[in-house]
Amino acid sequence: MVFDDIPIFKKHVREYAVMKKCMFEFRKADKSRAYLWCKHRKNQNCLWQVNAITVPNEPTAKIMFCNLKHTCKRMKGKRNPMCNSRFVADYMIKTLGVTNSIPKPMAIMKLHIWPTFRTEIPYWVAAEARLMILADLHGRFEESYTKIPSLVKEVKGLDD
Ligand SMILES: [Zn+2]
């Protein structure tokens, strides 16, 4: 399996962990590699592990080794700390239509994250995620705003 880069690989594995109701931690992580193992490696000797590295001179990251079999006990409860505010914000940005307004925290919890992942998130995680979405969309607005002067210039050029 190939990914664009290590940050995208990390996002992908997090989504996998939320879906599968498991947890991992980073054994090593930098720009060129991410080695993960099960959160219960030490206390339950679970050998679930995924190692990804970037390939020199190639703009991709790929999995060099993986063992996707968890031998640890299934998570109890409906919460997974892997489902953090950054994850929730990224998921919402990925699925929100351009014209849709941003749902309130309670709606993010009940209408988006729970139906998709069967995972409960605390209110503050949803609220923090909402702020991240707003900041991200605002950033995009600023970006497009700075393009207006050059657009005006181009339109004027057409008149000449
Ligand atoms: Zn495990």
UniProtKB/TrEMBL annotation:
Residues 2-63 form the Transposase MuDR plant domain. This is Transposase MuDR plant domain-containing protein. It comes from Papaver atlanticum. The lineage of its organism: Eukaryota, Viridiplantae, Streptophyta, Embryophyta, Tracheophyta.
